[in-house]
Amino acid sequence: MSVLASVRPDSWNFPLFLHVLGAMILVGGLVTGAGALLYARGEARLLRLGYWSLLAVSLPGWILMRIGAGWIYSKEGWDDLPEGVDDPTWLGIGFLVADLGGLILIVSLIVGGVGVYRLRQGKGSGLLKVTLGLSLLLLAAYLVAAWAMAGKPD
Amino acid sequence: MSFDSWILALHVLSAFAYVAGVVLFWVLVVAVRRTDTPEGTIRMEPVVKTGNIVVGLGAGGTIILGIWLAFSVGGYDIWDGWIVAAIVLWAISMATGQRTGVAYTRGMNKAKELRTAGQTGSSPELLTLNRTSRGVLLHFLTSAAVLLILIDMIWKPGA
User: Fold this and answer.
1) How much is the pTM?
2) A9: nearest CA in chain B?
């Protein structure tokens, strides 16, 4: 209980705010992008809306989340642990999902970008289905990361 | 993980869902500003429904689990200023969010009306409804209230 109720130093609040806000925007972009791509059924306008949600919302959200993560990591002193002491599991899950997820997000944006470009020739919806699949995967992964960050399992 | 840690994790996930819904509606607010056909407007409906479900789960989860935590976790009380502020902001966000929905539903209803009447081309009246400045203002107020809740939850003024 005391861990749940603990109050952190004021200087940690702003980096944490940036981290959480970025993560929420990232998830919002993924929900919007995946929703639009899922219901598009080949319709170019919704396919473009889904792709642009990922590019213009999720990507800036990821950048904000990752900057905040690095900042709060340093503020909380996790980068200064004694030799042989590992990061806690929840932190490991967070970093793995954030960094691997960022890579997958970039791949999904490249694939989706080619798909959106090819929509002009009436093609590309297959590539955007790949982007949809990757978005759903990322959404699941980031929700697990948010659960781990909030619940802090041992 | 203790039971309260699980509740806290689900409370935070609910907050993610609430903000995700607000973000989704911002994307739709921008997207419908250039939509002047019944078909284009109606195509957005499944995405709107997704947003409604996400916001509903998020709003319900944050308030129910948040109140649970206020009673269950030692050191916090439901009458703490920052918790009362969060509940008030939550209520404001719900009220403005509901009114945002009403403002944008007018465009959707008009689109369905036009389609039923066999009018499939662009409609200046539909475009005006889709560009509702009242809807934008209300969604801005909803977003501001949600942002203030996040700030309140992190800084916990007075805790």
Assistant:
1) 0.93
2) B155
The pLDDT tens digits along chain A (154 residues) read 444 545 678 889 999 999 999 999 999 999 999 999 999 988 999 999 999 999 999 999 999 999 999 999 988 888 887 887 888 888 888 999 999 999 999 999 999 999 999 998 888 889 999 999 999 999 999 999 999 999 887 6
Closest to B29 measured CA to CA, from A139, A40, A49, A34 = A49
Give A146 to chain B, closest Cα distance, Å: 7
Q: Whole-angstrom Cα distance, residue B36 to residue A79?
A: 54
**ipTM (interface pTM):** 0.94
Tell me the residue type at A28. Answer: G
Give the closest of A1, A43, A146 to B43, CB-based: A43
Instruction: Report helix angle A125-151 to A44-53, nearest 10.
Output: 30
Cβ contact B11–A150 (<8 Å):
yes
- Contacts of residue A98, defined as CB under 8 A and 6 or more positions apart, other chains included, come to A62, A65, A66, A69, A145
Cβ–Cβ < 8 Å for B15, B150? yes
| Number of neighbouring beta carbons within 10 Å of residue B32 | 24
Longest dimension (CA), chain B: 63
